[in-house]
Every structure is written in C-alpha cells, then in structure tokens.
Amino acid sequence: MQVGGQIGIKSHNNQVDHVLPPQSTIESKYFDDDGRPKRTGTVLTTSAHIITAVIGSGVLSLAWAIAQLGWIGGPCVMLMFAFVNYYSASLMADCYRSSHGNRNYTYMDAVRSNLGGVRVKICGLFQYLNLFGIAIGYTIATSISMMAIHRSNCFHKSGRKKPCHTSGNPYMIMFGVIEIFLSQIPGLDQLWWLSIVAAIMSFTYSTIGLGFAIVKIAESGTVKGSLTGISVGSVTQTEKIWRSFQAIGNIAFSYCYSFILIEIQDTIKSPPPSEATVMKRVNLISSIITTSFYMLCGCIGYAAVGDLAPGNLLTGFAFYDPFWLLDIANIAVVIHLLGAYQVYCQPIFSFIEKLASKHYPQSRFITREINLQIPGFQPCYKINLFRLVWRTVFVFVTTIVAMLVPLFNDVLGILGALIFWPLVVYFPIEMHIAQRKIPKWSTKWVCSQLLSVFCLMISIVAGVGSVAGVTLDLKAFQPFKIIY
C-alpha cells in the first residue's frame, strides 16, 4: 500500500504498522511492491493448487456421466468443457493486475476493478455460495470413501455374504474435526505443502481406478458401453433426459477452478516473468494433465463397467478385488479431499476476516494475535481468536448440512450448473472485453457473446437435470441418514 511515496506494511487488520523507504533493501528482499511479504509461488506450487482443486472427487463420477451420454456425447462434452475452462482461465490470468498495475487479490477485486457496480456483489454471492457448497460436497464425498473402506473390508471377511451397511455420520464428524485443525492455517500461500500432498493423492486414486478398469477390460475381453449411453428400458425416457442433463453438470463441475484462480495467482512470486505469464503456463499444464486423466478415467471406466457405471467408481463397488488396493485408493481420496477442502475454503475465510477487520478495526477479539511457541518449530504460531472461532463454526455448519443432505452426485450437478456460466464464462469474458476495450458488435465481441449465451444454455440444462435428480432422490431420503 502506498503511503506518501513510501510502502506501508499491513498488519492482520489491514492497518499500516510501519513504513519503509521506496528503495529499501528490506522492501526488495522481504516485501513485494504492494508492501506484503514476498510471494514465493512457482509453477510447481501453483499447478499443485490447481490440480488439487480440479482433479477432485469429480473424476470418479465421470464414468457415470459418460454412461448417461454415451461414447459420442461423453468425450465431446468433456473436450468442450476443457477448452472453455482453459480459455476462460487464460482471460482471468490477465485480470490479476489492473490497467494501472495494481494487484487484485480476489475474484471480487478483479470484478470491482474491471466492471464495478452491482456485478461485484453478484460475483461475490455466486463465488462464496459455490465455495460453501463445495465444502459440503467434499464432506459427503469423504464420508462415502471412508464407508467404502469399511464395506470392502467387511465384504472380504464375510465373502460378500453380508450387506455390510454402515452410517456415514461418524465419518463426516471425523472429517470435520480434522478440518477444524487444518483451517487454522492462516492463508492459501502457506498451504503449498498440503496441496502438493493432495495433488499426489489425486493422481494415486485416479491411477488405481484406471488400473482397475484396464484389468476388468482385459479379464472380460470386451469393451462395454454404447454410442448413446444408457438405453431407455433400463431407465424411463424422462429419467434418461434428466440424467443426461445432470451428467453435463457433473462434467462442468469437474473442470471448474476459475472462481479461485485470482486467489491462487496471488501466491505467485513477483515478476519477471509476469504473474499472468506464469499463470497461463500453469493453466496449459494443468489443462493438459486434467483432460488426459479425465478422458482416461472416464472412458476406460465406462468401457469396463458399461451403462450401469456407479456414481463413484471407487465406492460404488464396480470393483472389489484386491480389496487392499481399493482401500489405498479410498484413503488417497480422503487425504486429497482434506487438502482440496482448504484450497476452496481459504478464500471464504480470508473474505470474512478482512470484512470483520474493516468494520471493527478496534476490536481486540478480531485483530489481536497471540504468539504460541511450539517446541521444534520456528517462528511462533500466531493464534487469532476470531479466526479460531469463525473457521470452527464454518466447518461445523458445513458438516451439519452435509449430514442433512447426503446426495453426492446431485450436489455435484447442481454446483456445476450454478457456477459454470457466471463464474467460469460470463465474468471472465466481460472483464476481458472491458479491459481490452473491445468495441461492441465487433467480430470478437459477437463471438464472445455467442460463447457466453451458449454456455448459459448449458448451465440451465444442467441445472434442470440436477434439480430433477434431487427431486427423485429426496423421495427415499431421510435427514442425518446416509447409509451404504
């Protein structure tokens, strides 16, 4: 922050603690151009954040999604979303700095800088509602993986003679308790190690799922599936339509990360090269890796299981043996989702804490930090009471809501439909138009608007299908009762 030609160093409550001379050695060594501590993010750590966010539990539902759309529609929809997300992420990368060179620290800051007005609040509403929904979805997904571990071991001991049902509530509570501790990590830039571990885990369970599918194809000697997906007869005509729409929403959700791209980009160390250049390189690497994995896991999973592919390839028991390898895969899912939860929730944590500091700058409960010396660790860990209470309450609420509404595939579909058009397409395109001052009705403007309208229609279709799926599933639904 510039203060009278000098750099003001911000404290937790965004107040200026002290100032440094413009060309200070301390500034160049320890602080960036905005007075904040030096960012240290690299292509590796930034890619880890994105892969942790993108290659999530959604990859395990892709075989089910392709089963609804078939060999023609499934891969085509996946490639389409891969292109759209890569294109929009590249546009977003240019929005990190304003035309004056100032940084935008969050998605909302980028919208405020380029568009302004009521669209800033609309963007914030969509972004943080979506991140809250993802936290709920990941809590559900983790409990399903934990239950799958219990069930596979039970099947192994009983020779599959027992139903081996178990409740998901204890596992959701366990996940919530762990997340309460992880949520006390102050910011996204300090989560790089957790993102790297989570990214490795995502490759682990995706590779195991892929291996299971390949072995099953080799054993049967046949490639299952059809050109148009699950046939009418196995499901009704209406269910076929709704499930196809829901599958589109699931695929859309599995690619989305533009809504946390600015927050991730804010961890990249200062130029040269520019943050946008690094981010575009990361986008390309991440898009190639995720699309390759998605095509492999989705298509080979469908080829192995066919039209009756489960909603979650590792927990729907499309595969049983070897049970210990299935357990390893589901443990990897759990570890990955522990990290992914944090990557998605840190922007919410940061937003609320900055808002509280802005409105109550004199409150010691909000601004005071207590030094806690942990033996063997340097420097001291700083405990902020507001952060401790607020983040604990957030995790508690997401856990309770997940226990109330444990509908994994439906949650994925609704989230994909809700966020895809506004956050992944509309805002990036509108900011690009405003930033580059693209003339109205020019060829580029028209093409951009056509892409936006096309994606809006896809979001509506996916949303309708997901809501229909929820309506059907709610008929057999009981709150606080997730049993597999």
TrEMBL record:
GO biological process, one term: amino acid transport
Pfam families hit by this protein: Aa_trans
Top-level taxon of the source organism: Eukaryota
Protein localization: Membrane
Keyword Transmembrane: yes
Main localisation: membrane
Record domain Amino acid transporter transmembrane: where: 39-470
Entry GO CC: membrane
TM regions (residue ranges): 43-64, 71-89, 128-149, 191-215, 282-303, 323-344, 388-405, 411-429, 450-472
Keywords: Amino-acid transport, Membrane, Transmembrane, Transmembrane helix, Transport
InterPro entries attached to this UniProt entry: AA_transpt_TM
Protein name, as recorded: Amino acid transporter transmembrane domain-containing protein
Organism: Acer yangbiense
